[in-house]
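re: ur question from yesterday

yeah so i grabbed the chain u mentioned. its 153 aa long if i counted rite. heres the sequnce exactly as i have it in my notes:
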Amino acid sequence: MSQIERGKSTVTISALQEIADAFGVQIAWFFHSPMPTDPAEAELVVRGPNRRRIDFPGSGVQEELLSPTLSGQLELILTTFEPGSTTGDRDRLRRGEEAGYLISGMLDLIVDGRRLRLREGDSFAFTRSGPHRCINPGKTKAVVLWVITPPSY
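ran it thru and got these structure tokens back, copy pasting raw so excuse formatting
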């Protein structure tokens, strides 16, 4: 953590999960909401300017929480991968199921040691039975819409 604070190491999703676990909080605790939410919409709608965002400094990965609440069984996340970026050197393990749709760009999805090349318009789904990670091998941004159950952030 000291290396991250001093800018000597990048913050990956895996590293952030370890930090959250150490502090006994969910990753959602690190997401920043730029504007107050209308109380009448709070648990139903997330307006574009009100998305809670988290940047992983030095990693080239940004995530936006699209779910208005994490109290249900479903979580929506929009992830943007800069060219050459990755979720980290270590695979992640989650419980439940994950699915996604590649809105733009190219992405290598590595699940249980299998590397799958995804292109714009491709979708995927897997039950959490093994480790996974993502790499953008392309020269343009890759944008993925994730659906995760149960919520992990």
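noticed a couple things. The mean pLDDT is 80. also Residues 2-149 form a domain with the Jelly Rolls fold (CATH 2.60.120.10).
anyway ttyl
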